[in-house]
Amino acid sequence: MAVYTKVSAEQIDAFLTRFDVGTLVSAKGIAEGVENSNYLIETTQDRFILTLYEKRVDPDDLPFFIAMLDHLAAKNCPVPPMIADRNNVKIQELCGRSACLIKFLPGISVTVPTAAQAEATGRALGDMHEALKDFTGTRPNSMNHDTWRQLAKDCGPDELDAIASGLHDLVESELDHLDAHWPDDLPQSVIHADLFPDNVLMLDDQVTGLIDFYFSCTDVRAYDLAVTHSAWCFSDDGSQFDANVSTALMRGYLETFALSTQECAALPILARGASLRFMLTRAYDWINTPADALVTRKDPTAFLKRLTFYQNNPDIFNR
Ligand SMILES: Nc1ncnc2c1ncn2[C@@H]1O[C@H](COP(=O)(O)OP(=O)(O)OP(=O)(O)O)[C@@H](O)[C@H]1O
Ligand SMILES: N[C@@H](CCO)C(=O)O
């Protein structure tokens, strides 16, 4: 479920008169996603996504996301820019929320990626990193390495142990390890920071869309590859690592973007950090979202299993 703010057909119809996009034919709430309210809009001219930004997206960040998407679209990356109205305004207000009309991209997100799909995604990520080399916008990462200890505290020791026995101690010792080894001196860039399979649209083995840029920020560039690796190369529950998918993802990325020796050497620690980050944010939501809420909670232990895997297989990126 991701329609927190209900917008009537009449309100959407009136909203669309601000734009030169034809008139409303149909509007459907989109079930996928958990952060914002999304509608699929069909007009007499085209299809669009209407997004109303809910509490986790700061409206002050929207100009950064818009500039990033425009920059990437101008360099032919398959991203969905926001549509400007007749007065060249992109950030609108609708039903008391900031809202944007967004280009619709075809494709579906895969749930069990094949090696060919992972390779195409690796290439798309590398192309995006290449295209962002001269992007001048910046946005601090509100979920960067320095925030994870506080996030663990906010979860609470007993609550972490209720998710998995001994989890609090494991998190503390992992935080100490990451503090001692985190590579802050690697090249930084604007990164996507959340390129999970549900944020990549595909037709067969082709990437047709990279979406959901609302965590994008400035951070260690190779960390983006580590996030993508942790999201793509395991079964959803984290219990199975797929070596073919991993090799293919890395091959695709390295075809389009060259990593330095230092960046390659840092991937194991960056992947441990990525696993801890998603384990902690999922744990926080798990603890703070009532079990009967409309939003489906994501399983933190799926990223605990990934973390354990990366701890036990530090040579995984050399294979
Ligand atoms: N530009 C687009 N073109 C086509 N479909 C889109 C587009 N943007 C979003 N969607 C569809 O809407 C769904 C939800 O979008 P999105 O992932 O951005 O929502 P969210 O609530 O911000 O997400 P999340 O919970 O992943 O942070 C996507 O899974 C996809 O099906
Ligand atoms: N992609 C994240 C949610 C958004 O940060 C997860 O699956 O935990």
Question: Your description of this structure?
Answer:
Helix 3 (about 115-130) packs antiparallel against helix 7 and helix 6 (about 165-180) runs antiparallel to helix 9. This protein has helices at about 10-15, 60-75, 115-130, 150-155, 155-165, 165-180, 220-230, 245-255, 260-290, 300-310, and strands at about 25-30, 35-45, 45-50, 90-95, 95-105, 190, 200-205, 205-210, 215-220. The strands form 3 sheets. Strands 1-2-3-5-4 form a 5-stranded antiparallel beta sheet, covered by helices on one side. About 40% of the residues lie in helices and about 15% in strands. By secondary structure, it is of the alpha+beta class. Strand 4 (about 90-95) and strand 5 (about 95-105) form a beta hairpin. The longest helix has 28 residues, at about 260-290. InterPro entries: Aminoglycoside_PTrfase, Homoserine_kinase_II, Kinase-like_dom_sf, Pseudomonas-type_ThrB. It catalyses: L-homoserine + ATP = O-phospho-L-homoserine + ADP + H(+). Pathway: Amino-acid biosynthesis; L-threonine biosynthesis; L-threonine from L-aspartate: step 4/5.
